[in-house]
Here is the input.
Amino acid sequence: MLRARAGTTVSPIDVELLIAALPELARLWRGLEFHNGMVIDRRGRRREGLRVEAGTHPHTGTRYRIVTPLPETPGDEAPAAAEDEAATPTHVRVVDVTADDEERIGLRSTEPTGVAVDVEVHRPGAPDRMTATSVVAVGGTWPFRGPMTVDVRLDLAALPPAGHATDPDEPQLVVELRHRRLRIRATVLAAVVGDRWDLAFDLGFAGRGLARPLFRPGTPIIGRILRREIRKAVGELPGQVEACNRELARLSGRPATPTTLAANVLDLFLAEIVETVPSS
Here is the structure.
């Protein structure tokens, strides 16, 4: 397997605050009011863009239809009038509650393309692990087209300052991509060093089956590309973490509390939901 490694240090993140906000966010979500299937936000406004399509909020088996504006891209023209929400292109996804009990909360988000992502929070009362799984279609020509499985695992309980109880060298974040002709594994190990976090990144890349010999001639080139890109991404992380910490402080209030953070996150989500769904 071809390997590429890199490391950096970043400002510490208030992990304990973030983890404590997850049960609060679940509680506030369960407490949302729906009228005729449509959500009523905390300011009393009905938002047609969040609707119960099946089941009963907030129980397992409930299906929500979520409509948000499409993100603007460079060159896009804004609608003629800001209040003309019907002129704004929208994105529609469906979210199903697949589990909600003491062991886990499970959500499945399905895009219009049919691609689904399954997300689970384990032990939601005191979250210790989050996982995400999806299967995406890879286009192109043989031998690389076909389904690719993506698995992500984040061990919340092992993040600094706690760390892994049994193996300090076990990464907290693991991302695996598996295709019949390709396998990629990326990990991040975080540890406390003084008043900062030390992050170690490890990326592995290998061909599988019939594609294995195809990668051998290009291995040095692929290796240089991987190392260059991972160094570039890692070099941008300290600034990104600083920006995230500033936003976390803004959303958490003074003094910072999990309840305030959860309420503000939910308000931001609801603010993205369109009030009026354009007629098709």
